[in-house]
């Protein structure tokens, strides 16, 4: 049994989860990373994707996050998400609304910003494929 | 001298008003509770954000790589004021308090020869400030349609601010809102957003902050973080405002209900006195009529 640590998933609107967990998979910008207890202190930005949490009592929960960043310490991990929902509560329309909003923003955007938004849309689309089987 | 019928009508109308104010007070109380809960729920995020920001700012230090949103443009000529007020009135001095506070600030800046730009969030503040500074208001944001303020609302304002900053439209940005102290006391507050104030960032730098690994790197995270921090600050201000508005509305409506009660008492007393006078008058008429026979 792996050691557990405290994990908190916070969105600006509320604290979604605060629990003892053994393992968290975070979709960091530079690739997915698994955080376990006694992880080296790390700070990373997070891209849209699925956060998989394995709680101390063996359950697995999945949350969809839309960007944010994570603060990882040996004693615990905090994920500050721009916006987050439990995978069960996520449906296609929410996702599509977001993609549409991003597309609207794409018009008129230039250079670096354009690439960034395009990447964001691609990530969202992928998230949709992963979470909601067509 | 109003007649008995007039008095009766008057009492009925005051009673109806009292019922309305009482209902409004109750609605405000319920909304206040919800607003307080929302503010409470948003607190962990902004706290963590402040801690993380302090941590990173320390790591990046006075490096030149620090983003301009944090260091500022180095000038102090053009000020952008974001004035957050409520969308509706009937909440005592809540809106005028914020507006007055902002107005004093604008006057001071203008006297110093600075350029001032104003963004109004909320209808009431716009209505008040328009009288004096119509030419300075560059934008107004309407949240009337919004039932419950979400992060997206604040984020949109935040984006707007950053966009303006990138265009070099202003040097210093200050946010005006009302801090929710208690149900009866809301304090108008000014908070500097850009450049991020040192006092704001350097909170509780725990000495034990270990050496972090940054992914991608500290500067990149910081430049991602600061815009987000602006949105979070605005979000917090909006939530505090809603709670304050509801608190002010509740006490204003409570006062109104009490005043209506007093008025009803006074009118009822008057009514009874007149009724009695009329009875006496009628009696005298009958008696004197009988005596004359």
Automatic annotation (TrEMBL), chain A:
InterPro entries referenced in this protein's UniProt entry, alphabetically: ATP_synth_F1_dsu/esu, ATP_synth_F1_dsu/esu_N, ATPsynth_dsu/esu_N
Topological relation to the membrane, as annotated: Peripheral membrane protein
Keywords linked to the UniProt accession: ATP synthesis, Cell membrane, CF(1), Coiled coil, Hydrogen ion transport, Ion transport, Membrane, Transport
Residue span(s) of domain ATP synthase F1 complex delta/epsilon subunit N-terminal: 5-84
Pfam family, one: ATP-synt_DE_N
Major location category of this protein: membrane
Assigned GO CC terms: endomembrane system; plasma membrane; proton-transporting ATP synthase complex
Gene3D superfamilies cross-referenced by the UniProt entry: F0F1 ATP synthase delta/epsilon subunit, N-terminal (2.60.15.10)
Localization per record: Cell membrane; Endomembrane system
Domain of life: Bacteria
Keyword Cell membrane: yes
Keyword set includes Electron transport: no
A GO term for molecular function: ATP binding
HAMAP family: ATP_synth_epsil_bac (MF_00530)
Protein name per the record: ATP synthase epsilon chain
Organism: Sinorhizobium saheli
Source species taxonomy: Bacteria, Pseudomonadati, Pseudomonadota, Alphaproteobacteria, Hyphomicrobiales
UniProtKB/TrEMBL annotation, chain B:
GO molecular function: ATP binding; proton-transporting ATP synthase activity, rotational mechanism
Main location: membrane
Gene3D superfamilies in UniProt: 3.40.1380.10, ATP synthase, gamma subunit, helix hairpin domain
Recorded topology in the membrane: Peripheral membrane protein
Pfam short name (any one): ATP-synt
A GO biological-process term: proton motive force-driven plasma membrane ATP synthesis
PROSITE patterns membership: ATPASE_GAMMA (PS00153)
Keyword Ribosomal protein in annotation: no
Location in the cell: Cell membrane; Membrane; Thylakoid
Record note on quaternary structure: F-type ATPases have 2 components, CF(1) - the catalytic core - and CF(0) - the membrane proton channel. CF(1) has five subunits: alpha(3), beta(3), gamma(1), delta(1), epsilon(1). CF(0) has three main subunits: a, b and c.
Family in the record: Belongs to the ATPase gamma chain family.
Protein's UniProt name: ATP synthase gamma chain
Organism whose genome encodes this protein: Sinorhizobium saheli
Taxonomy of the source species: Bacteria, Pseudomonadati, Pseudomonadota, Alphaproteobacteria, Hyphomicrobiales
